[in-house]
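I have a small job for you when you get a moment. Would you make up a two-line entry for one protein for me to read? No commentary is needed, just the two lines. Write everything out right here, beneath this request.
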Amino acid sequence: MIQKERIFDLAPGRHAQGSVIYWMSREQRVADNPGLLFAQHLATDMGKNLTVVFTLTSDYPGAMLRHYDFMIRGLHETAVSLHALHIPFYLLVGNPPETLAGFLDENGAGIVVTDFDPLRIKRQWVAAAMQSSGAKFVEVDGHNVVPARLVSDKPEFGAYTLRPKIRRYLDRFLEILPSLRPMNRQTVLPELFSPDKVIGSLRLDRLVGPVDWISPGSRAADETLKVFIGERLNGYAGKRNDPNLQMTSDLSPYLHFGQISSMRVAIEVLRQHPPGEDSEAFLEELIVRKELSDNFCHYHPGYDTTSGFHEWAKKTHDAHRLDEREYVYTREQFEQGVTHDPLWNAAQLQMVKQGKMHGYMRMYWAKKILEWTESPGQAMDYAIYLNDKYSLDGRDPNGYAGIAWSIGGVHDRAWKERPVFGKIRYMNDNGARRKFDVQAYIRSVNEI
């Protein structure tokens, strides 16, 4: 049974007669999916059918063909796995709350179970769907190891305030979940969708195409995790900030699209790798830092604007708003990677070409956008636009919190005051040169 702390009644007291629908959204997988398991438990207890639906819109903000291709091909693998368990899967194309509400009415749904998601657009979809339907809506947090609503009821100042709260609950929630059980063999299953046909039918911005260095889906995610633990986790703590060493896990796209769970990743790291600084460093990023991002977006509606900044950061930005900028670039110049800084250009071009950027370089990249724009607000807009458009793991709390950290000092402290940055932490290429071979990195990106 799924722990009750993961479950949140979004519309208590509404009628719950009829079938059970799992509205898959953030957790696009069969294994280790608390929301899907809870929906099956409800359906079995009530003697009702279980149906899984995914609502697909062709105009998700910031999403390109690159993102749709990865997501839809992963969803196809999920649909195949569900059908093998005699669980119908429907891909509904159109405005999400409208298509879902129509489906609920047509199928006499009584309960809708959906995924916790702190992003504004997902909350709006859920609110609109609830308003259009009489079904009971229940949210399950299957993304965070420790449920976001449980671990904190306020925006946390930083990792140091959230970390002890997570540790208090970690042993309790870091658990292996049971497998989904096969359902009624007599259930009529819809025809499986064709990924190519769905992708071809959508009106998408196709200028940013798929990448070939990573394969979508839960099976590929499991293999990527296996390779990371076996080949790259040793030495992770000391070498992770060198983009030339390829020490990163490459799991962020899978985590973003919910093709693998953080719980499963953490459990396998603890099970397969000896305890020590390497596993601790990775688990700090996977759990504390990632869940801090969910906390930030959940409790700051303006997570993608300067309104989410601490007061000290707003004051220091205001004090330096008229400082002279040595360089000021347009969004187009940033996008094309034609600044005066070859290191920054390489980071941008890697994101454009591969849909990813090394974590250290992403911090450097965002801080330079602050330095080379007219205001922190413009810097936020440009950085979010570029990250969401090109990164496979864009449009995610991790991205919004990371950009807010770089530009607005969110989850950070005040540092030595300097022009333009004020008291925001500063980074420059000399710091990068002390950490790794900058020229080797630039050459490697140019050779992609």
